[in-house]
Specification:
- 33% of the residues lie in helices and 28% in strands.
- It has 335 residues and is an alpha+beta fold.
- It has an eight-stranded antiparallel beta barrel with strand order 2-4-3-10-7-9-8-5, surrounded by four helices. Strands 1-6 form a two-stranded antiparallel ribbon.
- Helix 2 crosses helix 3, helix 2 packs antiparallel against helix 6 and helix 8 packs across helix 9.
- The radius of gyration is 19 Å and the shape is globular.
Length: 335
């Protein structure tokens, strides 16, 4: 990808549904060129925009990180099978004591339990699973940004900030809307109206409100290697109980951090970082230790290959090749 591609992706991260006319001035490129380049990026799998239920809307037990051990020679096949599950929103083949790291989500704790206890252990090639429940998300990967735009461009594009302390609300009436935007986060309101049976004028008000309130997240993602961030590492950290919130907030503020969460498991927090080089991991950990000397890194897992990220199936180069709807309402026992 060239500089314009990266600028467009950065702009889409800030304002995923902005019109090309709105973006033409800050990016310094005419709208027709932006439209054509974006179509090429998405067709080739270099970038995509998806939508999912806001983490704040999921109940306790609605999200989990699941480590999976596989039989020798069965890791890739097991990962491909798990990636077809709508509740397995992301699947990574990793280094370390586990073969796979799977992010599982559902609108009920019972569904997550069913995936972990009934679905994953029965996948061909899976030998064991170990589950870490997410207590509170300090930073969701949907808020991670490239740094391809200068401050002036970012100000002109703007970014819709979410309301603090969003409370869980009923999401079932918005199921079809979230699934449609999960397929294409820039889907025109006319097509959304056809899919959902809701008037486009209503959707023009509803979608921004759902994003602003944190009930849904519309996110632009990219082929990480092509964007210059080829190294992905998951870290488990032990933090003194009284410091978990502050430390997680500090981790979330670091530019390399994609996700930071308070968890219940072998550690008290998990962070996922994207890096330019594996050598940069030592620098990230050094900065964490300097700011929080009472924090210990318990374990690390380097991603060897991303099989699925937020509903998108990825090829070996990390480019999107397919889409599995993130239907968090689905019955886990349905094939």
């Amino acid at each position: 990808m060239d500089e314009l591609d990266l600028m467009m992706i950065n702009a889409m991260q800030l304002s995923p549904r902005a019109s090309w006319t709105e973006l033409a001035e800050p990016l310094g490129v005419d709208a027709s060129t932006l439209s054509r380049r974006w179509a090429q990026l998405t067709e080739e799998g270099f970038a995509w925009i998806t939508c999912y239920v806001g983490p704040s809307q999921l109940p306790w037990g609605g999200m989990a990180l699941v480590e999976v051990g596989c039989a020798a020679g069965q890791t890739e096949e097991a990962a491909g099978r798990i990636a077809r599950c709508p509740h397995a929103v992301s699947v990574e083949i990793t280094s370390g004591s586990r073969d796979l790291l799977v992010t599982v989500a559902a609108v009920t704790q019972q569904s997550v339990t069913s995936v972990v206890l009934d679905v994953l252990p029965r996948v061909f090639g899976v030998q064991w699973v170990r589950t870490t429940m997410i207590v509170r998300m300090a930073r969701d990967a949907g808020s991670w940004r490239l740094d391809s735009l200068d401050p002036g461009q970012r100000r002109r594009i703007g970014e819709e900030h979410k309301e603090a302390g969003a409370q869980p609300r009923a999401l079932t009436p918005h199921r079809e809307l979230i699934l449609a935007l999960g397929e294409d986060g820039r889907m025109p309101y006319s097509e959304l109206a056809r899919r959902t049976g809701v008037a486009s004028s209503t959707l023009r008000r509803r979608v921004p409100d759902l994003v602003r309130s944190g009930r849904l997240t519309i996110r632009c993602d990219t082929a990480a290697r092509e964007a210059g961030w080829p190294v992905h590492v998951s870290l488990w950290l032990n933090i003194p109980v009284g410091r978990i919130a502050d430390v997680c907030a500090g981790l979330a503020a670091m530019p390399e951090t994609r996700m930071a969460a308070h968890v219940a498991g072998q550690a008290s927090a998990v962070a996922i970082v994207w890096l330019h080089r594996l050598e940069d991991l030592a620098d990230w950990e050094h900065r964490v230790a300097a700011a929080h000397p009472d924090v210990d890194v318990v374990d690390r897992a380097v991603s060897l290959r991303s099989v699925k990220r937020t509903g998108r199936l990825l090829d070996r180069a990390g480019r999107a090749t397919g889409h599995v709807p993130m239907d968090l309402w689905a019955d886990p026992h349905t094939p």
